[in-house]
Amino acid sequence: MAGKRPAVPGNTSDPEASGLAAFAAELKWEDIPTSVRHEAKRALLNMFATAFAGCGEPAVEKALAVMSRFSGDPQASLFGRGQRRDAALAAFVNAMAANIHDYDDTHPATIIHPTAPVAPALLAFAETAPRTGADLLRAFLIGAEIECRIGNAVSPGHYTRGWHITSTCGVFGAAAGVGALLGLDPQQFVWAFGNASVQSAGLVEALGTMSKSISVGNAARNGLLSALLATEGFAGPPGPLSGSRGFLRVYCDEPKFGKLLDGLGEDWEIARNTYKPYPVGVVLNPVIDASLQLSSLNGFRADKAVTVELTGHPLLRQRTDRPDVRTGRESQVSAQHAIAIVWRRGKAGLDEFSDAAVAETLGAGRPEVNFIDDPARDVASVGMAVRMRDGTTLQAEISAARGSPENPLSDSDLERKLMTTADRIGFTGNVGALIDAVWALDELADAAMVSRMANPAGTSDA
Questions:
Q1: What are the φ and ψ backbone dihedral angles of 106, each rounded to 5 degrees?
Q2: Alpha carbon of 5 to those of 33, 244, 300: distances in Å?
Q3: CB neighbourhood size of 312 (10 A)
Q4: Which of 5, 25, 74, 444 is least surrounded by Cβ atoms within 10 Å, i.e. has the fewest?
Q5: pLDDT tens, 355-400?
């Protein structure tokens, strides 16, 4: 498969969609490098960790209460909740939970969180139609790869214009992944892309609010439905991606068409995936590292700090210059809160980005933060200079934040992350067995085993 770009008959008006369709239809498990297969397992392990962390959040509870009124047969697991719903709703809820804390994986070139829209759709479907673990991993890699490549083609303008790229590109990833489990042919894949293209939505304006999670949940659910519709011959436009009014041209001023197919099957975008040590927007990771570094200095006192100067990539200012946040959700993209809470508590876990933590920093005061944009900087780097009341300046330089490609989380780090979030929600299942099952997923005859293990007492439709 590597390097091939066969066209789909009747769809030559969209060679990009045709090439991606051929890749998805023809890729074999044996074609996938061992290191890439392992990255898929890391992504799934991290997804269970973040889904556990978010499964009981108010936004999830509210969405589940409303949508359960219309749910069908309880076929699929809700991770961490001990409940089941129909596959479409399970995909929606699990995707919401996995992304809600902004604690999930990140594709650095696009800031897409690849796994939340894709894996929940695949795992929900696998509970309705058994597939092997190797089938599921192959499907995940197809979906995540296509999702990230579409993201590359519209970046950076797409996100800058205000589209929430995880949602807008995630629906294509979910459609491609489920399509791979269904065994779609190339024409059906193009239809699935077309069905996904008309359901691509999500706004950066919604970050920090409950509404953000709607589009992430929809990406998983609507991607699942897009592929299922394609099996019935539900035909989409012939140019869903590069047509004159296709996704690429409508959602981006200057699409990079070559990013979709160049090196496809050889140069894997998902191999560049990264994982977060803190539940915040990825651009805040170096800020937290710097804040932790300074807070550990002997004699450091936050109340003696006058101003903070942050020199970072422009996205740092654009995303996190939010001095007046008042909710835990908003605090996940606030540099002012992040610095203040780390200096007060000396750590940056889920509890540090809660409503209670926000009330704490609001009452105690947050530092004045001045941002200096440096487009030459990587998003994983930052320079922090803190002017103190006695006239001295304390400095920290972070060149590669924890969790970045140059400073990645280890397999053991991801295991601890899952164990920590499971403990936080009082998970009653066997976390160690779930971890072992994910690492051995390619050897399992039934991929849905991991979903059931993530759903203790998961026979309830209550």
A1: -140, 135
A2: 19, 21, 59
A3: 27
A4: 5
A5: 999 999 999 999 999 999 999 999 999 999 999 999 999 999 999 9
Length of the chain: 462
For residues 453 and 434, the answer to whether their CB atoms sit within 8 Å is: yes
Q: How does residue 461 score in pLDDT terms, banded at 50, 70 and 90?
A: low
333 and 273 within one domain? no
Domain encompassing residue 142: 15-277+424-453
Within 10 Å of residue 151's Cβ, how many Cβ atoms?
A: 26
Q: Is the separation of the CB atoms in 5 and 15 below 8 Å?
A: yes
pLDDT score of 169 more than 60 = yes
Domain tally for the chain? 2
Comparing CA positions, the residue from 150, 388, 162 lying closest to residue 259 is: 150
In this structure, the answer to whether residues 269 and 349 fall within a common structural domain is no
Q: Are 138 and 63 in the same domain?
A: yes
Query: How many Cα atoms are found within 13 Å in the side-chain-facing hemisphere of 333?
Result: 19
Instruction: Please write down the HEC assignment for all residues of the chain.
Output: CCCCCCCCCCCCCCHHHHHHHHHHHHCCHHHCCHHHHHHHHHHHHHHHHHHHHHCCCHHHHHHHHHHHHHCCCCCEEECCCCEEECHHHHHHHHHHHHHCCCCCCEECCCCECCHHHHHHHHHHHHCCCCCCHHHHHHHHHHHHHHHHHHHHHHCCHHHHCCECHHHHHHHHHHHHHHHHHHCCCHHHHHHHHHHHHCCCCCEHHHCCCCHHHHHHHHHHHHHHHHHHHHHCCCCCCCCCCCCCCCHHHHHCCCCCCHHHHCCCCCCCHHHHCECCCCCCCHHHHHHHHHHHHHHCCCCCCHHHEEEEEEEECHHHHHHHCCCCCCCHHHHCCCHHHHHHHHHHHCCCCHHHHCHHHHHHHHHHCCCEEEEEECCCCCCCCEEEEEEECCCCEEEEEECCCCCECCECCCHHHHHHHHHHHHHHCCCCCCHHHHHHHHHCHHHCCCCCHHHHHCCCCCCECC
Q: Which two tokens stand for residue 205?
A: 């304006």
- Say what percent of the chain tops pLDDT 70: 96
Residue 84 bridge partners (DSSP): 77
Residue 76, strand partner residues: 85
Query: Which CATH number do you get for residue 189?
Result: 1.10.4100.10
